[in-house]
Design brief:
Oligomer: heterodimer
Radius of gyration of chain B: 67 Å
Strand content of chain A: over 45%
Largest sheet of chain A: 7 strands, antiparallel
Strand content of chain B: 25-35%
Number of helices of chain A: 5
Helix content of chain B: 10-25%
Number of helices of chain B: 14
Structural class of chain A: mainly beta
Largest interface: A-B, 43 and 41 residues
Number of strands of chain A: 30
Radius of gyration of chain A: 29 Å
Helix content of chain A: under 10%
Chain lengths: 401, 834
């Protein structure tokens, strides 16, 4: 060893993160319902996202518009309301074809008057979905025989609208709710008319309306999103000259039936407005090569109705490589050109506080069928093990001589 | 200075196994040498070690790397670290050994020349630190390179140092330390003729003071090559006694003798030497075979388990943007590192074994003062045999100065030169021994240092090389044990003539013959006498020649008879070329084929076997001629009746005639019944009893008068019937059909035949010679059978008819005439009788 240097190479695990699907969904703005489903491997919890919209309760005077007493036939048209629908909270693009979404309505009537509730449905009317950017408006028409719905006095009334009692008027042959929910994110708009159907002089009480959209996570689709992660474990003020190389190893065991393509990873400083990008972080394969398309993390495969939706996890290993400017390489690469980021950039990395990752998520395909259905359960998880391998380069010449 | 410090640190911090006393083994005149082989006899009769100064020993060694492995001098004179060289200098398991010994008391004495007894009380300490190479691999190389990467790294170049994806093998890591006292009693004894064999043993009482013993040590650390998960496995057991802090720091511990007696054990040293020849000696020993049972303040530690660390857990919230509980994470790290292991302790007693050592030596005393030695030394460390080999040169100048120099090979070290020096200024004897004298001068290469020194008081060390009790300065034969009356020179055969004046050292003899015996008194001493028990003559080297025939008795087959050389001393009296012993007639010459005897009568039978030596006679008559006593011409040898004449054809015996019928029995077919000669001496028979002898009886079985030759008479009328039948018999021409005209007469014949039951009729058919023989034979057959058939048809029994046919073979007339032919054509009918 030249110059009396001491160059041990150390490999240690740093952290392991095990994120279940339920935990992943919790980070987004929706409620989650876990539904027990028995299977040969034991009871599993099927995931359903729930988005709810609660209207301001309506009083009788508001409904009857200043009349002195309630008589049948007084109609009140509620303004159009909307319910937020998003699968993974992304602000970018995405599309999910859900097998059986539905929207439940509940009216709590504490007045002494009965009503008839009618949706302003149909083509070009007030019952439709629309993307957050205002495009892709899809109208709904109710074919439920109970519609318009009778709302009894001093009571509540609930009903569900789904693929069975809704029609997509522009293509009546398609499943209406599935069609109008896809693509996400979007809003569900609804307009309701209330018409009194009884008499009363008692103007006390209120009518409350709650709309809940249930999105059972069974279907297929994709989502493109950008997410940020805290980044503290990469902070270091180690002098670059004392490292020959460092590899940050990510070993991912993906138990979700979701394939992820990581297009980019950036170190950003979110303390500033707007956020400042410090640097790009190239993600290497373990042989030192980089796929220009990004890092592909295959999703778990093999699940279907015939095997109780049990998936086989996929494993992916990627490295962030940092190497000394003077080209001291891990011998495994065997290249004549430097591989990895220069260690001198560690300072730049330490200037950021978060890592931003742009990733595209797609549901797993079977035999390349883009319409392969997947189901999400709470026990499916993404396990990430993070380790580091680094080679020091410590000059002991001064101590020896 | 820095180098020295580093070298010493390396020496101390490294690890090896300690070496046996390689030099001391060949300085066996020191009483301390008996610690290496209890069969060694010190040369002085009484040896007393100065208390606490007689035997001090210090040893430290390193089996792993040496200084120069870790630090090298560069071309610019700067020092540089070479940790991979240090790894290359290690084995998989390495040892640091350190040992101290002090002999508090050591004294011994010789008892009656052949016995040696000694007592020693010694305090000993042994320390061994065992460390695996992978421990330093982790420190020098780390766990971050795979074997392939380590092999390809130009600074490492060895796949063994790549621990990524492999298990770092830390098995065997541990400390073993024992402090103990031993009280030993040595006994050595010389055996066999000339004290060729010496055996010795030293039983020892062992008293343990303190102990650390790593009983089990299985430690490993595996780094997963994919995600760097660390997996530790541990199975570690350590026994200790009296090493807890309270005991060690309490002064009372060291002044309490009882502490030693709580940990007792037993040990044994065994050894032997054997003089193969005067110059070659082989020796062997086994020392420190023993154990100590530890009971006081024992504390045993058990650590076992396996655990995996794959990184800090619980960071999901952190990762997903939530808050983090750092306290919980820290607790989680500790828990994840330790929750797989379990530890426990107990205070059970336990046993440890001393490190037994084995020696095998060969010495060659090529000079009175010098010898060469070859020693192989071995001991077991962690179930592995560690061996050393030493070649030594040993010099002894009287009993004052002893010097030993040796070269040893052990533990892959080839630079071990030992020196030993002893000086005896009677009674003070001092010694100084280094097993590696080059160590201070070669620190960079030194793996071990061992020195021993001490002072003894010695008594009874006067020189008596041959140990005959006569000091060498008064001993005329200092190298050979001898007798006082001969000034130390021997008289091996005890004939009162000392060996150097005795021509026969090992055999007693009189002075007249220079100490050599002459048992037979023939004036020729036994060593030169080929026949020492028989008086003899000088010509035959003391062997006799009794018959004085010039052939000594032991070569003379006939020692008492004067004989000839060609007969090996045996005589031939009759001079026939056959020695008397083999001559059946020693006084008379004779040929070899007759065994030396003559044959006077020339009959081919020598006289000594000839009953009639002067008369020729056949051999089968013992040489005598045959006689004829009865004069019948038949020699007696052939005569069955030598006294009665008789014909030769009857073997000289007369023929008999038993029935007196004049027909000699030899010719008599009926020797008991008289009869005529013409009937072979048998009487004639008359079967039918008709008075006509059968010889004369034409019908011997049918009575008849003599007038009719013994046959029944045929009456005239009866004959007439026959004749008529014959005459009237006619056949159709050429056929066998009887003419009718013949019937009557044939009928009459048949009637007659029926009546005459004793009659048989013979019917014979004949023909003339006309036609061929076969046809005539056939015709005659048919005709005769036809007659027979006709008679049978008339009631004549067939058994009374004899039918024959003869064709033309028996004419009774001339076939040349018609008459003759007619007569020949006939069927004869004749009455016959049995």
């Amino acid at each position: 060893m030249a110059g009396g240097s001491y160059r041990p190479t150390v490999a240690v695990p740093i952290a392991q993160v095990d994120v279940t699907m339920a935990e992943l969904l919790k980070s987004f703005e929706s409620d989650i319902i876990l539904t027990d489903e028995p299977s040969d491997t034991g009871t599993r919890e099927f995931l359903t996202l729930v988005f709810a919209d609660t209207l301001e309760p309506l009083t009788l005077p508001t409904i009857i518009g200043g009349a002195a007493a309630v008589i049948p036939g007084l109609k009140y048209s509620l303004p159009v309301e909307r319910v937020d629908l998003r699968i993974f909270g992304t602000l970018k693009d995405g599309s999910f074809n859900l097998t059986n979404p539905r929207v439940d309505f509940r009216l709590d009537n504490t007045t002494g008057v009965s009503y008839e509730m009618e949706f302003r449905d149909g083509l070009n009317n007030d019952f439709y979905t629309q993307k957050v950017d205002g495009t892709q408006t899809k109208y709904l028409e109710i074919t439920d025989a109970a519609h318009p719905y009778p709302i009894p006095a001093n009571d509540f009334y609930e009903f569900s609208l789904d693929n069975d009692n809704l029609v997509y008027p522009e293509s009546p042959g398609l499943k209406a709710m599935t069609t109008v929910v896809e693509p996400t994110p979007k809003y569900l708009y609804y307009g309701i008319d209330l018409t009194t159907t009884s008499s009363s002089t008692d103007l006390t009480g209120e009518v409350g309306v709650v709309a809940s959209v249930f999105l059972p996570l069974r279907g297929y689709g994709f989502s493109t999103r950008k997410d940020t992660f805290k980044y503290e474990f990469l902070n270091t003020d180690t002098a670059g000259a004392e490292l020959n190389f460092a590899e940050l190893r990510f070993n991912i065991t993906n138990g979700l039936p979701l394939t992820g393509e990581i297009f980019s990873a950036e170190v950003i400083d979110t303390t500033q407005t707007p956020w400042v990008k410090m640097m790009d972080i190239p993600l290497y394969n373990t042989d030192g090569t980089i796929d220009p398309r990004g890092v592909l993390i295959e999703g778990a495969t093999g699940g279907s109705a015939t095997n109780d939706w049990v998936y086989t996890p996929a494993i992916k290993t990627s490295d962030i490589i940092l190497s000394n400017d003077i080209m001291v390489q891990p011998v495994v690469y065997g290249t004549s050109t430097p591989v990895g980021l220069p260690i001198s950039q560690i300072a730049a990395m330490s200037g950021g506080n978060k890592m931003m990752v742009e990733v595209n998520l797609k549901t797993s395909k079977t035999n390349a069928d883009p319409n392969t259905e997947v189901k999400f359960y709470s026990d499916q998880s993404l396990n990430i093990k993070i380790g580091i391998r680094a080679q020091a380069n410590i000059d002991l010449g001064a101590e020896l001589n | 200075m820095k180098k020295l410090i580093i070298a010493l640190l390396v020496l101390v911090s490294g690890a090896t196994y300690s070496q046996q006393d390689l030099t001391l083994y060949n300085m066996r005149y020191l009483q301390q040498a008996s610690f290496t082989n209890p069969a060694f006899f010190p040369e002085c009769k009484v040896n007393v070690g100065i208390p606490a100064l007689s035997g001090g020993q210090f040893r430290v060694g390193n089996s792993g790397f040496v200084y120069k492995d870790l630090v090298e001098l560069g071309s610019d004179d700067s020092l540089r670290l070479t940790p991979v060289n240090a790894l290359n200098g290690m084995k998989e398991l390495n040892y640091l050994d350190q040992e101290l010994r002090t002999d508090i008391i050591h004294f011994g004495f010789r008892l009656k020349e052949k016995n040696y007894i000694s007592l020693n009380i010694s305090v000993r300490e042994q320390l061994r630190v065992t460390y695996p190479r992978d421990f330093f691999t982790l420190a020098f190389v780390g766990n971050g390179l795979t074997p392939d990467e380590a092999a390809a790294d130009p600074f490492i170049g060895n796949s063994d140092y790549g621990l990524l994806g492999e298990r770092a093998n830390l098995d065997g890591f541990g400390v073993d330390m024992t402090v103990w006292s031993e009280i030993g009693v040595q006994y050595a004894r010389k055996l066999m003729e000339d004290d060729k064999l010496s055996i010795g043993f030293r039983p020892k009482l062992l008293l343990g003071a303190a102990n650390i013993h790593t009983r089990e040590s299985e430690i490993g650390l595996t780094t997963d090559a994919t995600d760097y998960t660390l997996t530790g496995d541990l199975n570690f057991v350590m026994n200790t006694s009296n090493v807890d802090t309270a005991t060690v720091t309490d002064p009372a511990t060291y002044s309490d003798p009882g502490i030693y007696f709580k940990n007792m054990g037993f040990g044994m040293d065994l050894g032997a030497t054997y003089d193969i020849t005067e110059k070659f000696q082989v020796s062997a020993s086994a020392t420190d075979i023993g154990f100590i049972n530890w009971k006081s303040n024992t504390r045993n530690y058990y650590l076992v388990g396996a655990d995996t660390f794959a990184g800090v857990e619980g960071l999901e919230d952190e990762l997903l943007g939530g808050g983090s509980d750092t306290t919980g994470i820290q607790e989680g790290i500790v828990e994840s590192l330790t929750d797989g292991f379990s530890d426990s302790t107990d205070t059970d007693k336990y046993r440890t074994w001393l490190t037994a050592r084995y020696n095998l030596g060969l010495n060659y005393q090529f000079h009175e003062k010098q010898n060469l030695g070859l020693l192989v030394n071995a001991h077991m460390v962690k179930r592995k045999l560690r061996a050393a080999m030493t070649l030594s040169y040993n010099y002894r100048l009287r009993k004052w100065i002893g010097f030993s120099a040796n070269y040893s090979i052990y533990n892959r070290s080839f630079a071990n030169v030992g020196l030993g020096l002893s000086l005896n200024l009677f009674p003070i004897q001092g010694y100084l021994i280094f097993d590696n004298v080059l160590a201070p001068f070669m620190l960079q290469n030194t793996r071990n240092v061992h020195m021993r020194a001490g002072i003894n008081l010695t008594f009874g060390c006067s020189n008596d090389k041959d140990k005959d009790g006569i000091p060498d300065n008064k001993d005329d034969c200092p190298d050979t044990p001898g007798l006082p009356e001969f000034k130390g020179c021997p008289d091996t055969d005890g004939d009162k003539i000392m060996d150097k004046n005795d021509s026969c050292v090992t055999v007693a003899g009189p002075i007249e013959t220079n100490g050599c015996p002459d048992r037979d008194g023939d004036g020729i001493i036994d060593p030169e006498d080929d026949c020492p028990d028989t008086p003899g003559i000088i010509e035959f080297k003391g062997c006799p020649d009794v018959d004085n025939d010039g052939i000594m008795d032991k070569e003379d087959e006939c020692p008492t008879d004067s004989g000839l050389v060609e007969f090996k001393g045996c005589p031939d009296t009759d001079g026939d070329g056959i020695k008397d012993l083999d001559d059946k007639c020693p006084l008379k010459p004779g040929p070899v084929e007759f065994e030396g005897c003559p044959d006077t009568d020339g009959d081919g039978l020598p006289d000594h076997k000839d009953s009639c030596p002067e008369k020729k006679g056949p051999v089968d008559n013992n040489g005598c001629p045959y006689g004829d006593k009865d004069g019948d011409g038949v020699l007696d040898k052939d005569d069955k009746c030598i006294d009665i004449p008789g014909p030769a054809e009857n073997k000289g015996c007369p023929y008999a005639d038993l029935d007196g019928d004049g027909v000699l029995d030899k010719d008599d077919s009926c020797i008991d019944t008289p009869g005529p000669a013409e009937n072979n001496g048998c009487p004639y028979s008359d079967l039918d009893g008709d008075g006509v002898l059968d010889k004369d009886d034409r019908c011997p079985q049918t009575p008849g008068p003599a007038t009719n030759a013994g046959c029944p008479e045929i009456q005239e009328e009866e004959q007439e019937v026959l004749n008529t039948a014959f005459n009237n018999l006619e056949f159709e021409t050429g056929k066998d059909i009887i003419k009718q005209s013949s019937y009557e007469s044939l009928n009459n014949l048949a009637e007659l035949l029926i009546k005459k039951e004793e009659w048989k009729i013979q019917i014979s058919g004949h023909t003339d010679a006309v036609g061929n023989d076969a046809s005539n034979m056939k015709l005659s057959e048919k005709r005769s059978k036809a007659v027979g058939a006709y008679l049978e048809s008339k009631g004549v029994p067939t058994e009374r008819m004899i039918v024959k046919w003869f064709g033309e073979t028996k004419p009774i007339a001339d076939n040349g005439t018609a008459e003759g032919r007619a007569r020949n054509r006939r069927v004869e009918m004749e009455v016959v009788f049995d």
